[in-house]
Amino acid sequence: MNTRILSGSVLKLLAVVTMGIDHLALFLLSRQEAFVAPAITVLGKGISYYFLMRCIGRLAFPLFAFLLVEGFLHTRDRVRYGINLFVFALISEIPWVLLHSGTLRLTGHNVMFTLLLGFFALYAIEQYRQTNPKRLTAILLGLLCFSFLFRADYNGSGFAFIVMLYALRRHLLLSAVIGSCMLPMKWMAGLAFIPISMYNGKRGFIHGIIAKYSFYAFYPAHLMLIYWILTHS
After folding, report:
1. How far apart are the first and last CA of the chain?
2. What CA–CA distances, in Å, run from 219 to 47, 135, 214, 223?
3. Of 54, 102, 60, which Cα lies nearest the Cα of 227?
4. 3-class DSSP string for 176-203
5. What is the mean pLDDT of the chain?
């Protein structure tokens, strides 16, 4: 039975939907007592809708990280790919900071910067893996330290997760085992490898510039929408 039935487009939709559910719970529903209080019982333990939504949201980052690796490996223009990540990381910074601090005072940086640092790591690996392994090691360690100091979302664990996905891309089961130990709410992050294992290597139904950049734009757009709702409710 062929289980590889999910295209890259389906994984993208799954990533943005799970991220949207996570942020909806974190920024909006966490203020509602009905969503934070235990609502259902699982194995004798009370579980809130808030907790369930945050669990679902843990699938988002592993999916985005996997899509980054796939995009890096298959893009025709890696420089433009990196520029796109950088531009949308900058655009996303304003709504991200507003949501986390209520002001424009920087307390950290959004997850697009984490993906961008991962992109730099993959680029360095491709450039120096064969020719200069010492330089590659220095670059990767430097990027890892910078990810902590820069306080990008998920910090060094997110950066290391991206590098791990690339290094073990032909060993999905091992990636799932190691990856599930690297991120918050580990077992839920590990579940992201179920749809990843169903990836068929095809782009899918998302084509064209508008669709492509709509995927990038969803992140800052939904953050700004949530901030607008918070400030007008």
Report:
1. 50
2. 28, 34, 9, 6
3. 102
4. HHHHCCCCCCHHHHHHCHHHHHCECCCC
5. 91
The pTM for the full model equals 0.94
Condensed to tens digits (0 to 9), the pLDDT of residues 191-221 reads 999 999 999 999 888 888 888 899 999 999 9
Q: Please tell me the distance from the alpha carbon of residue 227 to that of residue 100, in angstroms, as a whole number.
A: 10
User: What does the pLDDT read at residue 158?
Assistant: 94
pLDDT given for residue 228 in this prediction: 94
C-alpha distances (whole Å) from 136 to each of 44, 124, 153, 195 are: 50, 6, 24, 32
117-to-92, 98, 121, 128, 156 alpha-carbon distances in Å:
15, 22, 6, 16, 10
Please identify every stretch of the chain with a pLDDT value under 70, giving residue numbers as ranges: 1, 185-186
d(CA 106, CA 133): 35
Rounded distance between C-alpha atoms, residue 183 and residue 161, angstroms: 8
- Given the structure tokens 């307390």, which residue do they identify? 107
| CB within 8 Å of 231: residues ≥ 6 apart | none
Cβ atoms of residues 160 and 141 within 8 Å: no
Beta strands in the chain, from DSSP E residues, in sequence order: 38-42, 45-48
Q: How far apart are CA 58 and CA 56, in angstroms?
A: 5
- Cα(48)–Cα(129) distance, integer angstroms: 47
| Residue 101, token pair as written in the block | 């601090």
46 in helix, strand or coil?
strand
61 and 189 in contact (C-beta within 8 Å)? Answer: yes
